[in-house]
Write a structure and sequence with these properties.
alpha/beta, globular, 12 strands, about 45% helix, three-stranded antiparallel sheet, five-stranded parallel sheet, Rossmann fold, disordered C terminus
Length: about 270
């Protein structure tokens, strides 16, 4: 008698031939309250942090992704239209320098820790938190140690500043030259049991990324990640300007007061000893 196909597939999975990612649902939750919590975490990092119209969509849907909410949405990297997201895929956030994309990954990793959010990968449970490493730092480690295995094998990994000017296209160790980030992305993209979260100044499918890493990696990124963009000005400059605005308001008045005080306190005739 032939065995049911479902039983056969289940046996294959149990033997670990194809590890899969299974997301747990942390429902119900109140999105407005969750957004307040996220903003509080952000303000603890920097008192000037705020959620506004330029980043609200990203934070709302990162919350949905973490909670395993089927209403999770992302953006089509080609058309920029809002589309249903994939809870078992990772995250790619593009944005200008200082837009807050790197903060988003750090803040949401901390948010996961509140309820110890878990994800099932293969037959193991992992906390849905991720260490973040700059892409150039990963390259530097290869030049020092000749290996990036710890980045390849991590179940959940955050990569910051993908494709930045400080990230070398190739790195050298003991005469061995390798495109470190290209190799890392190809490796992680070939497996179904890895969650990768990425930030970059470059939109997904940008020509610079394709030229740097090749068509294969570009295709892998689309499979590996849900896509988001944070637009707007450099928030780091804004925060710095906000801190200094009061000085621009206060200093002229203060200077005028000092000069007037100095003027009226001067004797009509100056005497020198």
């Amino acid at each position: 008698m032939e065995r049911p196909i479902g039983s056969i597939i289940g046996n294959i999975r149990n033997k670990g031939f194809f590890h899969t990612i299974r997301r747990n649902s942390y429902l119900p939750y109140q999105l407005p309250f969750a957004m307040q919590v996220v903003e509080a975490i952000g303000k603890d990092r920097n008192p000037k942090f705020r959620i506004d119209n330029e980043n609200r969509f990203v934070y709302e849907n990162l919350i949905r992704w973490i909670h395993g909410d089927q209403d999770f949405k992302c953006i089509d990297p080609a058309t920029k239209e809002v589309i249903p997201g994939r809870l078992t895929a990772g995250i790619y956030i593009a944005g200008n320098t200082g837009s807050g994309k790197s903060w988003a990954l750090e803040i949401m990793s901390a948010y996961c820790d509140i309820d110890n959010v878990q994800v099932t990968i293969g037959n193991e449970q992992f906390c849905l938190r991720w260490p973040c490493f700059r892409s150039d730092t990963i390259c530097e480690e290869f030049t020092e140690k000749g290996s990036i295995d710890k980045y390849k094998k991590r179940a959940i990994l955050g990569i910051q500043d993908l494709g930045s000017n400080s990230e070398p296209i190739e790195s050298l160790y003991m005469g061995n030259r390798m495109g470190v980030i290209q190799q890392l992305l190809e490796y992680r993209g070939d497996f179904t049991d890895k969650i990768t979260l990425i930030t970059s100044n470059l939109p997904m499918n940008h020509k610079v990324l394709i030229d740097r890493y090749g068509d294969r990696v570009a295709s892998r990124l689309n499979e590996m990640c849900n896509y988001f963009e944070i637009k707007g000005k450099d928030r780091r400059k804004t925060y710095s300007i906000d801190n200094k605005l009061s000085l621009f308001v206060i200093l002229p008045t203060l200077a005028t007061t000092i000069l007037l005080s100095f003027k009226y306190s001067l004797p009509t005739t100056l005497k020198y000893s």
